[in-house]
Fold each of these.
Amino acid sequence: MDPENIFPSFDIDVEGIITAIAENGYRKVLLQGPEGLKRGLPLLAEIIEKGTGARVLIDAEPCFGACDHAGERALAAGADALIHLGHSDIPSMDRNMPVPVHFFHAEMKVKWDMLHAGLKKIVETVSSKRIALFTTVQHISLLDQAKRFLEDHSATVLIGEPGGREAFPGQVLGCSFSAAEGLELENASLLFMGTGRFHPMGLSTSTGKEVHTLDPVTGAVGKITTMERERFLRKRFGSIQKARDLLDGGCMTGILIGSKPGQRRVELASDMADLLDVKGYDYRMIVMDSVAPMKLFTLGLDLVINTACPRIALDDSVSYVRQGIVMITPVELRMALDELPWSEYRFDEEW
Ligand code: SF4
């Protein structure tokens, strides 16, 4: 079976996986991947077994990011190592891993003519041809291509350095937009290459600028406008105000600590607890692996301060509201308690 046929929409370094297993002499490995790659894992396991002679087990749990690697399950299954597919390493994550973890990210295949058509539209519409370029790991190797194309069309391209959670320049995560931090963006246009509104909204919120978007697969272009960012902020300010009212009304408050290896922010949770102590509010510390509305509902919580994956509070708040739960980030709790002015709203990036 040709690996090309297993994952028709993605490029994955199957040779690299085989080499890593052979060079390290692993006899048994656990193979983990996100939902979008799960279907191909049994066939990939077969290819790896043929190429290495090692036994390959498949991890069937959901997987949301490199922060969610299954090192502990690999150890429990007696594997020598974990092969984590789909995401790049988070360098600042706890390196005390139960077994060695090898990250192999997956890149979406694109049609160059679609991408070039999209880039051409962007270069014709941007107000400044100093273009800061950002993407997710699924498109990371397109950055160089896109940079060359834009420069050939008289643009100057800026690509920011990675922070502690990113593996590549220009890469952004739902929990980190460090690539924008060191760049001089005052007279620049921002371009996010990728899918969905969440990452460009994070970029827009952390820079205070509009963000052009380009879906590299379809070539479709769009924009996070100031109006859209303000609509998002109004919703978050609504949640902050509700949190304030709930606290004053003596609600059941939980401070959520994520137990996934790259989501553990125990110190930040303690800071939140100290803040509530000082203000005289009651709370419980809650520990969870996969965060889900029903689990919190069952505990009778009204308000949850989430120190696990920031995306849960910001991108999935509706699911929690349906269960009568207001979920906010640590930044938002500081605002609810008047420790931070509302003008300084930002995404949760405290790692
Ligand atoms: S913490 Fe959330 S946003 Fe960050 S890498 Fe993990 S899943 Fe993605």
Amino acid sequence: MNASTNATLPSEPRGLPVLGHLYPLAREPLEYMLHLSRTQGDLIRLTLRGKPSYVLNHPALVEKVLVTDARKFHREGNDTLRQVLGQGLLTSEGDFWRRQRQAVQPAFHHERIARYCAFFVDSTREYLLESSDGEFRDIHLDMQRLTLRNAARVLFDIGITQDMEAVTAALETIMARFDHHWFGMLPAWLLHPIERQYRKANTTLDRIVRRHIHDRKQSGVHGEDLLSMLMQARTEDGSSMSEQQVRDEILTLLMAGHETTASTLTFTWYLLSQHPEAEARVHDELDSVLGSRLPTLADLPQLPYLNQVLQEVLRMYPPGFALLERFPDEDVTLAGCRVPRGSEIQIWPLLQHRDPRFWVEPDRFLPERWTEKGAQQRPRFAFYPFGGGQRLCIGARFAQLEMALMVATIAQNYRLAAPPGERALRLHASITLRPKSKVALRFVARSPSASRTGLQHSVS
Ligand code: HEM
């Protein structure tokens, strides 16, 4: 590692004349950044829209910014994120953020998440009952709907089936808005229709969430769910959380909690469809541990290979491929270079996850690598799909359990096969990493008698 012994100037690749780095970043951000990380030093300086931006290209630097020197940096979140999510956990800072995180945290305690697990299996089982052998399904859409329904139900005790179409369409429109924001390359007049749709989508989400808040208020019934907890929470001066704040936290958790998980699941199905040996090992493990019984939380430690597959998917395609930018509140030294206060710091987990200094054949899907000798000796921030430090993803364990149980329930019953000749997964680097186009996979019943028995058994 040469993070601390580097020269005093960060490496600065040459961009294209006039366009600089914006054009390759807008066209192929992942490929371009991976190319830079493999050809430049530990700290990369890019000039973007006339301003310097620093990309961390070594796990030790990531640890310094997220953990060791975290108090010297703040995170802002972009304008679109703040417009949609207001002052939710992702977009707030300082004491306000700390108080909100404390208010939300109980919903993510281990014993609470353990209680959600039965619902994750149940809702996946219901989904399977709607699916049939030989059917092609739009897997990403299915995974989005399932994870959205799961988060709404277990966190807020909200059923959103009747609003599903409206909510998923609104979220898609908002995701599209993030794309246009990303590099700020389009003129305002071209963005006009997109802006209109975006405002409409924002209003739709707002209306639906506020309706649920009002319904709960009117019912006067308060359960143990997070919606009740937020509505009843009191600040130090005894005042309650405003309706706006409750709305911001609900939308933040629904948005952060379903899109990333859905993408990871889609990537998992795709990668398994392309790697029959890994798929067969997952099936063997499920058959020997579960037989035709549905999975439970207690089964997960007996399914280590399934866990390795999910880790490997998160390594190769981290949905949070780039964290929200950090900004130093004072001049700092990174990799021996002075980085002035207020500079933009970019942290891309994808770069460390694919760094050949820490991973053999980093671009290959190899779930076995997680048990190889030396796997434990990698630096902490060679793999951090959920971020790190105090802003670590609040839903990390929630997501890991939900994904493992959903994959176990589906893979017990079906293989998801890609159409013949369909190989490449095209990725879209929006605010999260997601598939660029529809991922159509065919449901193939594994063993009709055994698998359907498992499903019917639990329905009765
Ligand atoms: C595979 C699934 C997931 C991935 C890869 C993921 C990734 C991340 C990452 C990388 C961050 C840190 C962002 C940064 O530091 O800039 C983050 C933060 C966050 N995530 Fe997740 N996440 C996932 C699932 C979830 C779920 C299920 C929830 C909630 C139900 C959730 C809620 C949040 C929230 C609220 C934050 C902000 C935390 C704070 O700043 O206090 N995430 N997530």
Amino acid sequence: MTEITENTRRIIEKEDRLLSYTTRVPYYPLVVDRAKGSHVWDVEGNEFIDLLASAAVINVGHNHEKVLEAVHEQVDRFIHYTPAYMYHVPHTKLAEKLVEITPGDFEKRVAFALSGSASVDGAIKAARSYTGRNHIVSFYHSYHGTTIGSLSVSGYGSDMRKGMGSLVPDVHFIPFPDSYRGKRTEECLESFRELITMIVPAESIAAVIYEPIQGDAGILIPEQAFYIEVEKICRENGILLIADEVHTGFGRTGAMFASELFHIDPDIIVLGKAIAAGMPLSAIVGRKEIMEAWHTPVHFFNTAGNPVSCAAATASIEVIEEEHLLENAVTVGNYMMERFKDMMTRHECIGDVRGSGLMIGVDIVKNRESKERDVQTTAKICYRCWEKGVILAFFSGCVLRVEPPLTMTMEEAKDALDIVEASITDVENGLVPDSAVDQVRGL
Ligand SMILES: Cc1ncc(COP(=O)(O)O)c(C=O)c1O
């Protein structure tokens, strides 16, 4: 069992004194010391199998040798010179790679930033500049980030908006399909049609922004029919498609980009999280004409396109390709989903298992009939996993978030799931007290 000492407590107390609580979503007292592949060690020397991958950022595994080499080599040359004023090779090399691997057989341009949120802002700015239209359509339960722009298009919960004053105007929300909790595709499409007939003329809408698979909503995977119709409405009315692939990108779903699963070539694709294997970087890749409709320097960040991050990103993409990580995500992901489905036969609290590749959600409910979310049990399972040596978090209050590095082996997956099942059993047997999860905030 994981043991912590005064050392860990002191570090956490200091954090609590110094850091804004609102920047954190604490789960358990894990102070990371080092990490390699799918394993993480805390400052006490406890070892964990990582089912979180730093929130789907570490797709190629922690501290992959090839990424380390690229970073070291670039650091030795120069750490930064802003590509806004000068040129550097890692910047161009990565842009070339992104243009090549993103969906869409058309001329593209790339713009870098430092966070998914900032790149979502960029996508909105590009869409508005190009179309000359103001309105943006987004979805309930979507998460696009925390800058004012990305928050404005996030339908994640009114708490996030409290006290924020006026957000970006002319943003409209419609429902997103949720086959488990009964939000039907046709109902969602009807809301879109109603929006454009009753509220906002289609010719005033610049773009629809969507996560191809909603992540923070608890892994919601629409059926193909939904996207066929959304795309049709958009194409008929000159509305741009902005795919926010910050979460789904770089192999997470078993495809390089989830747009490929739905056969859509978005006009703009937003990238972040795993793009640079943990180094700070994000990007938008869009049709040339859209990405050139704005004025310089409307989307400029001094340290964006940092050469060390760019070198890490190119190396990371090469790792995904060379080590066949898309295939591994599908193989290990399917195995994990089957194991969770098998657990359903023994554990009543598992209401649903869904996912694609290694983007898996396990819905924990009070009752399979009512599908009422069991927030307390979910938090306890994650807490027990930490005690037993697995890093596990949750979305949407009750959906276990199973998103390990794409390098995870079958053996590691098996070991991790043995611990997850043992933790579920412990929680069912009342071995985790309510007090243990007082501190768990989760999402
Ligand atoms: C789909 C999606 N878009 C945007 C963001 C925001 O990215 P960042 O936290 O890097 O600003 C996230 C972050 O979790 C995300 O999941």
